[in-house]
Each structure stands twice: as structure tokens, then as C-alpha cells.
């Protein structure tokens, strides 16, 4: 067995892979948010449609997208493996008497939080990514050129109050997931330090609030706009 397979089959190796995939997905959230915020520009969706067209046709972005799906899959698989390993190795009495004192609610419920986020992600991909790739899309003209009108698909979805509520609640779950995962990833990578750890925790707390809040803001604003 090679050192790579030995490392990835060990508990430390699994945690390391969880941390690395988690940090990549955190970076993806920032990039994805930057693109989605163009939905709020007052140009009728032109900027977002051009952005969506560029993302769909750029070879580099296509490779990154495949990697992103792979990292999501790895993150899910290793989270399940680590959760099962922790359940088997943790004494029941110890867990019952100490878990509330030594850990946060988010850290004790990362499995539940991750499951809800995964379900939301599947629904979200079905409604947008799948439709953009395999569905029949409306078109729009921008500066004399025809583009797929992805904005119209998004606007129609965000005009549905139930979808908006599900989206906002899911972002709440994401916030709790990030509140533990951000600092935990740095700790797993050995980047915790008595001098820098407080800063990492503060940045992580701010990130876990700001990013999900901005994601949630988009459907809320677009729903309000749909009422006028």
C-alpha cells in the first residue's frame, strides 16, 4: 500500500482531505456569490446572462466545475466516513456528559447541517444547472447577439415564495455549517496558533454570516421585485 493510500485511509488523512475540500468549496462560494450578485444589477439581467454564457463556454471553467463536483462528492463521502468512525470510537457515557461543554451546537450537528445543505444543493442544481445544460431555454438579445436567458429562469424561480423561503432557510443551515467548518479546516491543517487563532475564528464567524446572508438577499430582493 502506497503512502498516499495509507494517508487517505487514516483518520488524520480523512480529516486533511475534508479540510482541503472544505476550503476549496468555501472559495467556490465566494466566486459563485460574486457572479450571482449580478442578478441584482438594474440592467434586466443582461450582465448575468453574459456572465452565465462565459461560465458555460470557458474551457477552464468547465474543468473547474468538474473538479468542484468531485470535491463536493469527496467532502460528502469523507464526512460520512468520519462521522461513522467517531460514533464507533466515542464512549457513550463520555459523549453524553461532555459534548455540551466542550463543543458548539454546530460542531455536534455537522452531519445534519451537511445533509440539509446537500438536499438543497440537489434541488438547486436540478432547477438551474440541469435546466441550463439540458433544458429548453428562452433567449434574449444583448448588443445584437443572442444569449440564453438564464436570468428569466432564475427570476421565475425566485418569484415563488416557497422556493425563496426554502432558499433562505437553507442559507441559515449553511451559516451554521460554515461557523464550525471554517475554523476547523485551519485547525486540521495545523495553521492554528495562539496569536492567529482568535483572528481566524473572527474571520470565520464573519464569513459564516456574511456569505449566506448575501446569498439569501438575492432571492428576497428578486421576489420583492416580482411583486411590483
TrEMBL record:
The keyword DNA-binding does not apply. Keywords: Membrane, Transmembrane, Transmembrane helix. It comes from the Bacteria. One of its GO terms (cellular component) is membrane. InterPro entries: Cytochrome_b-558, SQR/QFR_C/D. Coiled coil: none annotated. CDD domains: SQR_TypeB_2_TM (cd03498). The chain crosses the membrane at residues 16-40, 60-81, 110-130, 150-178, 199-224. This is Fumarate reductase. It comes from Mongoliitalea lutea.
